[in-house]
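Before going further, learn to read the protein records used in this course. Taken together, the tokens spell out the fold as the letters spell out the chain. A record is reproduced here so that you can trace the correspondence yourselves:

***
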Amino acid sequence: GWQTTASDGMIEFWRSPIALPPYFNVAEGTQMVELNANEVSTLYQTFCVPTGGGNLTWSIKHRGRGGDHGTDNVTPDVAEVRLGNSLTSYSVLTTMSDTNQAWGTYSGTITIPAGNPGTYFIMFSSVSAAGGFNSVGNFIDDVQISFTQNCIDSDGDGVSNSLDLDSDNDGC
């Protein structure tokens, strides 16, 4: 379900173990993604949430690659976590800034209000890479997204509409 804004449509996946210095190993599982596959880009996923609102919880791990192919251990790679109704209308949830020495962990919970437009985009967007190389930088891994729906009980019987046999109390 992941898509990219890269003009060539490329998403760069790395599989562990990697035959490079150990700081390139994945944080979780067997693979990770590099945001800057061949150019600065945004990795995103579109999802629909009920118009009744709820809570969106997210977490991600981020790590710099090192601008000069792993030799810059001091300058961080920088990326943003964004949420919005489109790729151009969004809020920045956090800015991730990490060198290639350790994985940074970022997380948060956002309340999606009732009456929301229903479709959202969660985005991981490259801001800069150490050394200024557009095709190197911003590893991400262990992305987790969950949504908890606000349960509507329109007839007030203590049973949410999604589980109620007669949610409007009309006898049908």
The chain is about 0% helix and 45% strand. The mean pLDDT is 84. The two ends are 38 Å apart (CA to CA). The beta strands are 3-4, 12-15, 31-34, 42-48, 54-63, 77-84, 90-98, 104-112, 119-128, 139-149.
